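Continuing from yesterday's entry. The apo prediction looked reasonable, so today I'm repeating it with zinc ion included to see how the binding region is handled. Same sequence as before; SMILES copied from the compound registry.
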Amino acid sequence: MASTHDHDHANRTGAPLAVAAERALTASGEQWTAMRAAVFNALTSFDKPASAYDVTDAVSTAQGRRVAANSVYRILDLFVAKNVAMRVESANAYLANAHPDCLHDCIFLVCDTCGRATHVDDDQLSARIRETAVATGFRPEKPVIEVRGRCATCP
Ligand SMILES: [Zn+2]
Ligand SMILES: [Zn+2]
Ligand SMILES: [Zn+2]
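Holo prediction written out below.
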């Protein structure tokens, strides 16, 4: 699989991921509030991309009270804007970003059987897509590159 990292790239999970996410959010001038931490924890508790509804339910269960879906949506949007979470567009769902400390146009591989998503980063490929768009006069914000199919563990 192509790897084009020319920097010290780390994909993280668990506690180190939460630390990196907090660092990325606060470095952008935003606060890592208790509610934001709860949303991030809920997001990482799923083993597949989670809908905003699922995240709201998980936060509500963890807090023992019904939290407002709107505030969860706002936090998810903030996370996506700040590179702390990713949105898998074709699944209408969110994932914690395993590399909140560096920016890539992540390429998602979404399994149609189990619903899990992995991702790869290939900056050369995504740069070509951006350049192709720019060549037409288009101003690309973000390439959305998702591959549907079946993961290595599904038959
Ligand atoms: Zn990287
Ligand atoms: Zn990535
Ligand atoms: Zn699968």
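Comparison notes:
- Residues 14-27 form the longest helix (14 residues).
- The pocket of zinc ion (ligand 2) is lined by residues 99, 104, 106, 119, 121 (CB under 6 Å).
Will overlay with the apo model tomorrow.
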